[in-house]
Specification:
The chain has 43 helices and 45 strands. The chain is α+β, with helices and mostly antiparallel strands and 1218 residues long. The strands form 9 sheets. A 12-stranded mixed beta sheet has the order 21-43-42-41-22-34-40-39-35-36-44-45, sandwiched between helices. A hairpin with a 2-residue loop joins strand 8 and strand 9.
Length: 1218
């Protein structure tokens, strides 16, 4: 009974959650249309003159509540969808899809709420789940943001439609090589939809409707209608023209951006061969591909329109659209050794052809086709996810925008008070009702200016334009303001801090378990296993006659001066196989000897970041056996080698290279049994080949710093901005680069965090804190050697390292020609530190990706400390980079990220400001893209961000003061039942205010990045006091001028005005207030330390001079035609002394306004007072920093163990450490 009751309760639920725990988590509510409520809704819409329709357009959830009844999700025909930020709300209709199949096979299943499949459900039986979503032969579903969600009656919830990329074994994919029948394809096409990424480009008419129906323009339309009723024809007409031009420009830019995005993502409508069940192949349009289709990849290449898994043959693919790297990647077929694994596009990406990537070449044997199984189509592909990230970006949460809404509400309250005052005055004076209504409504348009939202974006628009001139392109302008508040910046290493290319430094051979002297020219190596490893262990290929591939592989292969040939016609000597052949440039190669020295590459295991290595199986002409050659991360290769082949000082020698920033690759090989045939090699598992290897030596390459890196890091540190390195390289290399570029200063202490997950021998996860060698650590040279020969060998090899570094040293400064900080190396005396300014030594953590994972999963309470104290994060996977940035954001940092696009896309999207140094299409995922391939763009973006933020504050304050100045003027005039004329309003609003608002933001960014950061809140005490004091002195000066006017004889003897605007009050208030608009603009045009001085903004300065002169001319030298045109009183008949006095008082306002702004915002005394009164709560990261200092953390020399119940205890590994 209890189970039945629980099932009934879940079935009757009207609310649910989709994608729980993810960034795209959605809350859904079910509604069913109600005829009576719908009828009443439209009656109310007619009675409200359409206002109700406008309200529900802005608030879609209100439409559901007014027209529908909330009901159980299974019975809903309308779904209300909200994101977890409550910023994107949509109403979608539930569809009933008719399918021709009775049920689907394993290609369709449903996820649990946490995104994982039900562990109790056998993957082979998941085809029954699709039938559970069917009602009377129909499937209930809805589409939201290009994703489809289907009702599952077994789990009584809507779930995202799955494809072959979820909960599908590799065996299932390999067994589907026969493809689908036409009936199956048609049925799936109904469920999954077309395989297309069609980006809608709306018509101008539709864009116009959407633009005009925003609250901003509706308010403007209502204001224009009011002004027309009030006979302000000129003013209303000009505002209408300006707004129309603004709308037209906005529509043009919006449509242009959509067309650009559509063209960027568009593919040609072409046909492709697909397997048609057991009947061979047929040709169908690529738009009709569905998950489960088996496609034949064209031999001459193509652009993929779906995500597909290779099951036969290999492909050479350019994935620059996704990774930002235009280096060709070899894709190999899925193998039966991986049958038991669940397919994952991320884990098995070496077998996956992703949508949007370019297949350059295919490789196959004989007449066989290169086949791939379609796993994802349309917007569910990797390319589709990228497009969705652009179309529906993660909402930005910036305090400035929240505060601006609060301030507008404050202005609305002030408008209400003004309306009450005016109403009392008009009733007391017996004014007509229609005049009262018009004046009361007019107050709202004055205190809440329609141009306020546009004025707030002026600084951002100018900053975007200046960034473009610097070669930095921004696709998300609101992110520019975030750049102004960044206090932590993360950098990728390779290609970002260091040069893209590597330089060959040398090869360190190993023989008889000893390292021999380094060979700087690998082509002089003897023909043996080490040379063959360099020649064959790579993924190079020939494309259009040129050798292409990974830059490291190219440098390695070119250094040995060998020749590579792709498969040719003569294949008999390789057991009818068509391998890639490598041979040296030598006489026996090209003079036609009978048995030339050639090596055939029989099979290739491509590089995988998961296993940190690659390997090949080769056969050399004249030999009766095959060989395995492997290269990769030294620590990984060492673990695969026979221990008796490793030199005893392996770790010591490796450390000496990596600590100096060299890129070190380990090389190893293994002879295979002569009985092993080619067919066995093609099917054998990778891990069975990559074991029991014989260590061959080290490949050492230089990865030099870019010359701009060190100065930029120094600039950021001077500005008190935390710098962090996130790389996939070795931790010793990363620490060395961090020291060389100044992230870690010479006297700083670096603690390496080593993490070990639970295993069979150690069931408890553990963390070790190891102190990295300091610059002068004698252990670098004083390690004991077991024999004199070893010592001699090591010195001979390492002395050349010292010579290389000494050769790079010059007297030009802290950096040598290579861009490295120069540490002259003498291994007999230890490292020598360079002289730098005095500073407080810091402690840095260097964390490996494995340690980061262990801390995250087993020591979550340590994660904040590790993230806060960590400076170097090495061996980090793409998802770990993203997780680190999200953690830093959670702890209160405003985080920037700079990467070259390769494996950095997720992190670039997650950061508040992501800057891509790649011009590839992957850069569309980053808010900023720099054409200049170095990190100087970081400082530029931050300077412009600070300038834009300060400009936004200035514009906002100016628009607020403009409203208050006019508000005070109007209230004074309403007291006397008068008002400004049509053209006087036009002069103030259009000529003065609009000109100033547009040009105010044109001031450029200050050339230096200072330690102070601009404020992020409008409601800070300094801003509030500044605005209130400016309002107070405005009211005081206007009232003072009014009282001075009322004392004049001509005022007392004046006749009753013929028109409402024909009064001395309106004339004098208009002229005096026109100076005030200009004065506050000057007061709010702040210069250093975030913007250049005001005089550098020449257009603004000229406009100020012209406007001030024009107002002075109308006051001091009035002309009768102008007075008549402006509906002013005959000021030219009044004594000059009176006019000069008004001018002097108005000019005095400029001085007092500037003085007040300096006193309440910029003076040191008031800043101290604000800090004492506000008692701002510390950011979370500062609290964590204080905790670290108080606890004297981390515990160097100790090992932390995680018990089964996650309680930790420490084991002291070094009594000398605290």
């Amino acid at each position: 009974m209890n189970g039945s009751a629980s099932d009934s309760a879940s079935l009757l639920q009207s609310k649910g959650v989709l994608n729980a725990g993810k960034d795209d988590e959605l809350d859904i509510t079910g509604y069913r249309r109600d005829g009576l409520k719908t009828f009443l809704f439209y009656v109310l819409a007619v009675l409200s003159l359409g206002i109700l329709l406008l309200v529900v357009y802005w608030k879609p959830e209100l439409e559901c509540q007014l027209k529908c009844k909330e009901c159980a999700l299974y019975n809903a025909d309308v779904i209300l969808v909200k994101d977890k930020f409550d910023q994107q709300i949509g109403v979608v209709d539930v569809k009933l899809i008719t399918t021709t199949e009775e049920k689907y096979d394993v290609s369709v299943s449903y996820q649990e709420a946490d995104g994982a499949g039900d562990p109790q459900t056998d993957i082979g039986d998941r085809d029954t789940l699709i039938s559970s979503s069917r009602v009377d032969g129909k499937m209930r579903c809805f589409d939201y943001q290009h994703y489809r969600y289907i009702w599952d009656t077994q789990r009584r919830a809507f779930k995202e439609l799955e494809d072959l990329s979820t909960n599908t074994t590799n065996k299932t994919i390999l067994d589907s090589s026969q493809g689908l029948t036409q009936d199956q394809r048609n049925s799936r096409l109904i469920v999954y939809g077309l395989n297309a990424i069609d980006i809608e480009v709306k018509s101008y008419w539709k864009l116009l409707i959407e633009e005009v129906l925003t609250p901003f323009y509706i308010f403007q339309i209502a204001s224009v209608v009011l002004w027309l009723f009030d006979e302000y024809y000129y003013y209303a007409g000009c505002i209408l023209v300006v707004s129309g031009g603004s709308i037209a420009l906005s529509l043009y830019e919006t449509k242009k951006q959509r067309i650009t995005l559509r063209n960027m993502m568009a593919t040609d409508d072409t046909n492709i061969l697909v397997a048609d069940g057991a009947d061979g192949f047929i040709e169908i349009p690529e738009r009709e591909l569905v998950p489960g289709d088996v496609i034949a990849v064209p031999a001459n290449g193509c652009v993929m329109t779906c995500d597909a898994v290779l099951i036969t043959g290999t492909c050479i693919v350019n994935e620059s659209m996704l990774t930002g790297e235009s280096v060709p990647v070899t894709k190999t077929p899925l193998t039966h050794q991986e049958d038991g694994e669940l397919y994952s596009p991320e884990i098995h990406k070496r077998h996956t052809l992703f949508s949007g990537t370019h297949v350059v070449q295919t490789r196959y044997y004989g007449n066989s086709k290169v086949l791939a199984v379609v796993v994802r189509t349309g917007y569910c592909t990797a390319k589709g996810e990228l497009v969705c990230a652009i179309l529906y970006p993660k909402p930005l949460d910036f305090k400035f925008y929240r505060d601006s809404v609060k301030f507008i509400l404050f202005l609305a309250v002030m408008a209400s008070l003004g309306m009450v005052y005016s109403l009392i005055m008009y009733i007391r004076n017996g004014a007509p009702v229609d005049q009262m209504i018009k004046r009361l409504l007019d107050i709202v348009t004055i205190i809440v200016p329609p141009a306020l939202p546009a004025a707030m974006t002026v600084g951002t628009v100018y900053a975007q334009s200046r960034l473009k001139k610097e070669g930095i392109f921004c696709i998300s302008p609101p992110r520019i303001n975030f750049c102004g508040r960044i206090n932590a910046f993360c950098f990728d290493k390779t290609g970002t801090l260091t040069e893209d290319g590597l330089d060959m430094w040398g090869v360190v051979p190993v023989a008889d378990k000893h390292f021999h002297e380094v060979q700087h020219d690998p082509s002089k190596l003897d023909r043996g296993a080490l040379l063959i490893c360099l020649a064959s262990c790579h993924s190079l290929t020939i494309i259009n006659g040129e050798l292409s591939g990974d830059p490291l592989d190219l440098i390695m292969f070119n250094a040995i001066k060998w020749h590579l040939e792709e498969p040719g016609q003569d294949t008999s000597k390789y057991d009818t196989i068509m391998p890639t052949v490598v041979r040296p440039y030598s006489r026996d190669t090209f003079l036609g000897e009978e048995h030339p020295f050639e090596v055939g590459i029989i099979r290739q295991f491509t590089f995988s970041s998961a296993v940190q290595r690659m390997s090949v199986i080769t056969r050399t002409i004249g030999q009766d056996h095959m060989e395995v050659y492997c290269k990769g991360a030294p620590e990984k290769i060492a673990s695969l080698c026979l221990q008796e082949t490793l030199p005893h000082n392996f770790n010591h020698i490796l450390h000496k290279y990596t600590v100096q920033g060299f890129r070190v690759i380990a090389l190893a090989y293994r002879k295979l049994d002569a009985k092993i045939t080619w067919h066995q090699v093609q099917r054998i598992a990778r891990d069975k080949m990559e074991c029991d290897l014989e260590f061959l030596g080290l490949l050492v390459m230089q990865n030099q710093l870019k010359p701009q890196t060190t100065p930029v890091i120094h600039t950021l540190q001077k500005a008190n901005i935390r710098t962090v390195m996130i790389t996939g390289d070795m931790i010793q290399t990363a620490v060395s680069v961090a020291r060389n570029c100044g992230m870690v200063r010479p006297n700083d202490k670096v603690i390496i965090v080593n993490g070990h997950p639970p295993d069979k021998e150690n069931p408890a996860a553990r963390i070790e804190w190891e102190l990295a060698e300091a610059a002068e650590d004698p252990e670098l040279v004083d390690e004991e050697e077991s024999s004199a020969n070893d010592e001699q060998s090591e010195r001979g090899e390492l002395s050349q390292v010292g010579e290389m570094h000494r050769g790079n040293h010059d007297d030009s400064g802290p950096t040598g020609p290579s861009g490295f900080l120069c540490f002259p190396v003498d291994f007999n005396k230890g490292y020598q530190s360079i002289k730098m300014l005095e500073y407080e030594p810091r402690t840095h953590l260097a964390v490996t990706g494995r340690a980061f994972s262990v801390v995250t999963n087993h020591f979550p309470e340590l994660l904040p400390k590790v993230c806060i104290l960590g400076t170097v994060f090495a061996r980090m996977a793409p998802d770990q980079k993203c997780a680190l940035i999200e953690n830093l954001q959670e702890y209160g940092y405003i985080v920037g990220m700079c990467g070259d696009g390769a494996n950095d896309c997720e992190a670039l999207k997650a950061a508040h400001a992501g800057i891509s140094l790649s011009e590839a299409e992957a850069s569309v995922a980053a808010p900023f893209t720099s054409r200049v391939n170095n990190i100087e763009c970081v400082v530029t973006a931050m300077r412009e961000g600070r300038c834009a933020l300060v400009t936004s504050f200035g514009c906002f304050k100016y628009m607020a003061l403009y409203s208050f100045i006019q508000f005070i003027s109007v209230l004074i005039l309403y007291t006397f039942q008068t008002n400004l004329s049509d053209l006087e309003f036009l002069y103030v609003d259009l000529i003065i205010t609009t000109t100033i608002a547009v040009l105010l933001g044109n001031t450029g960014a200050y050339e230096k990045l200072v330690r102070n950061k601009p404020p992020d809140s409008l409601v800070k005490m300094s801003n509030i006091l500044s605005i209130l004091m400016q309002v107070a002195i405005t009211a005081a000066f206007q009232l003072g001028i009014l009282f001075y006017l009322m004392e004049q004889p001509f005022y007392k003897n004046d006749l009753e005005p013929l028109k409402e605007t024909d009064t001395w009050e309106s004339t004098i208030i208009f002229l005096s207030s026109s100076f005030m608009y200009i004065a506050v603009a000057i007061s709010f045009s702040k210069g250093p330390p975030f913007r250049r001085p005001i005089y550098t903004n020449v257009p603004f300065l000229i406009a100020i001079i012209i406007l001030y002169s024009l107002s002075a001319f109308m006051l001091l030298a009035p002309q009768e035609p102008i007075e008549h045109f402006m509906d002013m009183k005959p000021l030219h008949t009044i004594d000059f002394t009176f006019r000069l006095t008004i001018f002097c008082i108005s000019s005095a306002f400029l001085v007092v306004s500037g003085l007040m702004e300096w006193l309440f915002v910029d003076s040191g005394l008031m800043k101290c007072l604000y800090r004492a009164l506000e008692r701002k709560q510390k950011s979370r990261y500062k609290v964590i920093q204080d905790t670290i200092v108080a606890e004297e953390w981390p515990p160097v020399g100790q090992t932390l163990l995680a018990s089964a119940n996650s309680d930790e205890f420490a084991v002291n590994m070094n009594n000398s450490e605290h």
